[in-house]
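Morning, I've got a small favour to ask if you have a moment. I've dropped the whole record in just underneath, so have a look.
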Amino acid sequence: MAATHTLPLASPGMARICLYGDLQRFGRRIDLRVKTGAEAIRALATQLPVFRQKLNEGWYQVRIAGRDAGENELSARLNEPLANGAVIHIVP
């Protein structure tokens, strides 16, 4: 993965979600105005119902702002406030 953990995005509250593997069919990079990773995933799942189904069917590694989120901490990390320009990677 790239070493960049934040982006110089113009609008406050913007985050980038980078999708890999089979999730790339929904887009490789998606910029959203969200406050948490959970909000970003909810937004994508609302706009793309098949995205929610794919997430439920598979196992994915999630990296938020340069730090991998382990299985035990994923829920807490997804609900942490994101810094402006944070990058979330979702990798099969």
Remarks:
- The helical segments are 37-47, 49-57, 74-78.
- The chain has a mean pLDDT of 89.
- The CA atoms of residues 62 and 69 lie 6 Å apart.
